[in-house]
Amino acid sequence: MANALAAVTVTDDTGRTVRLSKPAQRIISLAPHTTELIYTIGAGSQLAAVTSYSDYPAEAKRLPIVGDFRQIDLERVLAMKPDLLVVWQGGNPQKQLERLKRAGIPVFYSDPRRLSDIPDNMVKLGILTGHEVAARKKAVQWTQAMNRLKKQYGKRSGVRVFYQVSDSPLFTLNGKHIVNEAISLCGGTNIFADLSIIAPNVSIESVIAKNPEVIVSSKGLGTSNGLSMWKRFKTVDAVRYGNLFGINSDWMDRAGPRMLAGTEMLCKKLEESRKNIRKFH
């Protein structure tokens, strides 16, 4: 652990400078992915509270809950006297965060948009919590593992992928989302990469028109992880080839450390899909 009395400074994912007179010892994490990041770098014992859905690792479920992505219990947060809030730019109520900042609580915004932002967040949070050495080690290991996946799968034959975030309503992700980078790293092509909205609502007809060779679902309300609805569309290549795959939503939908496992799982599913496609050619 770094010098507990030394001042620390980092730049968060919004470009804001975060300065602490000494590494934080009483942290509140306001997003599941930031909770995972904090535990990964060895700073879990410094967490005072989390928000709903911060369910990994198991220790996080024993911490007090101070809200969710819709609302923060401001009075409870203030009463806890945290010396650092770690928040998600896109997943916390901004007006409430502004009130907490006005109260003098330092805030680190975590908003990974690229895979490389995840190890970068590890290092920055390591600096803020006094675990810089351990965080840098974890970041290097994570990056090396991701680079191995890129080397192994990045030049495989391309496959057209529909990435389904939910089935009712039907949502996907565009080319600016971090999941798109994972798809590309695995040798896939996101059929809706060119849409302007980062998480667009699409129609079944538009998916059929794009004729994906693979449909990957991270969650759904129906059976088979939201994939069963597609089986009636026999002319869609993904259905013809049997390339309907579920994937762990916590691994892919949270831009945290386990996205490495999610990307590896995705790469293996796309490799399986190539084998299925070859059976038809």
UniProtKB/TrEMBL annotation:
Fe/B12 periplasmic-binding domain span: 26-274
Q: Which PROSITE patterns does UniProt cross-reference here?
A: FE_B12_PBP
Against InterPro entries, the record matches this protein to: ABC_Transporter_SBP, ABC_transptr_periplasmic_BD, Vit_B12_bind_prot
Name the Gene Ontology biological process terms. Answer: cellular response to iron ion
The record's section on Pfam families has: Peripla_BP_2 (PF01497)
The record's listing under CDD domains reads:
BtuF
Q: Does the keyword Signal apply?
A: yes
Which keywords belong to this entry? Signal
Protein name, per record: Periplasmic binding protein
State the organism of origin: Oxalobacter formigenes OXCC13
